[in-house]
Amino acid sequence: MSMTLKAQEFDAAEIMGGLYGDGIIGRKGVFERDWISALGDDIRELYADALQRPGGAVGRGPKRHYVEIHPQGIRGFVDLATNPWIVAVSQAVLGPDYKIVEIGFDVPNPGAMAQPWHRDFPAPDATVTGRRLNSLAFNITTVDVVEEMGPFEIAPGTQWDLPTDFEHEMFPPRSFYPRYEARAQQKMPKMGDASARSALTIHRGTPNRSNTSRPVLVLGVDAPDGRNAERHDFQITRRFYDTLPEDLRGHLTCRLVDELEPIVQGHTIEGLMMGEA
Q1: Which run of H or of E encompasses 13?
Q2: Cβ atoms 138, 219 nearer than 8 A
Q3: Cα–Cα distances in Å, from 149 out to 187, 215, 253?
Q4: pLDDT at 238 exceeding the cut of 80
Q5: Is 103 inside any structural domain?
Q6: What is the percentage of the chain residues whose pLDDT exceeds 90?
């Protein structure tokens, strides 16, 4: 059965209502906990490797890193990219010709501090003028999140805010903070849960006061007119590409290589690179 047919069990109107309304939706039990455990093992190994390489990890604030990875660096990439819920959300919001442009992970470590409210990149004309979302970020936690771990916090509905006086078009002035804090929702997913959001919806990481890191996988997906692929080095070996389902190949914006090259992190967010990462 194709990816599209499996995805038809989900309600496109409900998906679009959530992402065009709050700017974030979630679903429980998208993946098995054993699958998430294996993903967590892969991320721990990739994170340790990235910290040893110049440019292997980029700071997102004190005690926080982001690491972009090769898709074949995790054992479950095909399961992830062909998951019916992820396919259904991508098709509903971005259309049948959506493209996967990024895979990586965020790690807020113990001692991570509060981030400023921000977007992950400037809002494109498609959103500011056209009032249309042309990209999504899927997040999959590798741990059961509790309040002490510094949950992700988001201000629903702010994906449509005009970037008036925003620094770098991503960081709103502090005078806007009371509005975000009045709307703020903290997300505490469990292993197996997944969310999809517009990266334009104003959000921040909160302080991690626990003794445990909170790794979360990030999958970036664009509509055909999205430009986020330009921020990433999405590589796949030709050998691996040949093993992928045909349905999936058409949704990849990737550079085919004979041997994988180390990724030097390119998607820096200047306003988050404060202090020691």
Answers
A1: helix 12-21
A2: yes
A3: 11, 10, 34
A4: yes
A5: yes
A6: 84
User: Helix, strand, coil % (nearest 5) of the chain?
Assistant: 35, 20, 45
CATH assignment at residue 34: 2.60.120.620
- Domain hosting 156: range is 9-266
CA distances from 118 to 153, 169, 199, 208 (A): 11, 9, 9, 18
Tell whether 99 is covered by a domain. yes
CA 187 from chain centre, in angstroms, equals: 14
- The alpha helices in 95-137, defined as continuous H runs, are 125-128
SS3 at position 139 = strand
Which two tokens mark 277? 């990462």
Beta pairing partners, 67 = 105
Q: What is the pLDDT of residues 116-150, one digit of tens each?
A: 999 999 999 999 999 999 999 999 999 999 999 99
Judge contact between 53 and 266, C-beta under 8 A.
no
User: Longest Cα pair distance anywhere in the chain, in angstroms?
Assistant: 52
**174 found inside a domain:** yes
In 3D space, the residue among 74, 22, 68 whose CA is nearest the CA of residue 202 turns out to be 22
**Per the domain annotation, does 17 fall within a domain?**
yes
Angle formed at CA 229 by CA 226 and CA 230, multiple of 5 degrees: 105
Number of domains in the chain: 1
Taking the C-alpha atoms of residue 104 and residue 80, their distance in angstroms, rounded to an integer, is 12
Looking at residue 74, what DSSP letter applies? S
Q: Which two tokens stand for residue 141?
A: 């936690």
Tokens read off for 63 = 């005690």
- CA pair distance 165, 173, nearest whole angstrom: 7
Mean pLDDT of all residues in the chain?
A: 93
Give tens-digit pLDDT for 34-78: 999 999 999 999 999 999 988 889 888 889 999 999 999 999 999
In order of 12, 120, 217, 274, the CA distances from 97 in angstroms are 16, 23, 23, 37
